[in-house]
Amino acid sequence: MTKPGFRAPWTHGAYAYAQADTFADFREGMKRKRKEQWVKMPNDGEAGDRPCGICGIALREAYASNPGGPLTQVDDQSTWIYTPRTKTAVGVHYGCSWGAIFSAIAQIRL
Length: 110
Known about the structure:
Order of helices and strands: EEHEEEEEH
């Protein structure tokens, strides 16, 4: 059995997040989606050339896992957040996505 280019969560080896191998597979998997989707894409493909939506460093390049820290963290996959209302997606590093979540939490608490 061959592995499809887009894999829904918990199918064909994907874990909690959907996975796509290329942007064409990503677009195909996002058809008819009405809620925000988080999809993992490999950084050794075309996704790795794109800049992170938070820090601006290419997704395949080393980035700082802590703000102001050394650029040492390298990810095999990036997280792509798809917004169906605007039909847009932004890719982020794993560490940057957590940093954004914690910043949002901190803003809510203020």
